TrEMBL record:
It comes from Yersinia intermedia. It holds the Pfam family FA_desaturase. Keywords: Membrane, Transmembrane, Transmembrane helix. InterPro entries: FA_desaturase_dom. The keyword Transmembrane applies. This is Fatty acid desaturase.
Amino acid sequence: MPTAGTKRNNHATSTAHYLSDQQRARIKQLSRSWLWRLELPTWVLIGVIYTGWFAGVIYWQQLGPVLGSVLLILLSAWYMSLQHELIHGHPTRWRWINQLFGTLPFAVWYPYGLYRDSHIQHHRDEDLTHPEKDPECYYYTATQWQYFHILLKGVIRLSNTFVGRLTIGPLLDIINTLRSAGRAFMSGDRPAIFMWLIHLGLLYGLLYWMAGYGISAVFYLLVISYPALSLTKVRSFFEHRAAQESSARSVLNEAAWPWRLLFLNLNYHLVHHDLPALPWYGLRQIYLENRVQYQQRSGQFVVNGYTQWFDAFAFTALEIEVHPFYDCENKTVAAEERSGVTKSSHHRSAST
């Protein structure tokens, strides 16, 4: 939304794409309801996640390692979905308060601030799937791909299968995150170093506290945190594709309700990119009210649940390697700049 996207989330320059003036009026009407104004669903979500997670640790011995691990995996994955909601300006209009609810390192592997900054950059829809501008992109430039070792290409292809994305996908993310941390410390990037020191300090305190209840640091990292990160890969598997129209780059996944609840309706990903400030509990409602229009807008990039991805790509790799038209566009732009031609944007993003 033009107002909510800029006022509520003042660290992001995001605009909204409405399908019509009627939809704009409908969302404005919903935003005036007591449920939306008070953000009660998000407050309840925060309470459930925090209470459940800490209770899972405190009552670890009574729950046992199997039930306790399952509970903490689900709550840690759910917490990552909550962090995404906090980034987009919920449940308060104050960024620092939202950040407080997302700073504890239940997810372990990355600081909240790092996720926030990279995700805001990802919401520049004109750059979606851009190999050098979209931090959540799985595509590469032809030049990058050319110089990759054959073993690395094999790893990438394996990670583009559904099973591979869930098993080695988190490891690749962790490696990239640690590399970015190393660059920050080596270059003397003070804000990034400060962010990492706070994250690591909180993580140390959290793991030390958990050890008192019988959960070792190694156990939490390998048996709980890694599988939780793997679980989030279900949602992000083929969430975006390369397409000329930016609206056709984001999927609409009509997933079952357990997945929708775990991922806070981000399966309706085009709706989220069109309306980045829309709260999670409004995404499904807005999608269902405009289902046909959204499916047309997505270029029929529609999936009937995550089992469809598993059936098609369990051990078959997505064709996500070299970006299909990025290098060609680069050459066109370079040629026009050399000829002194000023190129206007051929497409205006629906949502940034």
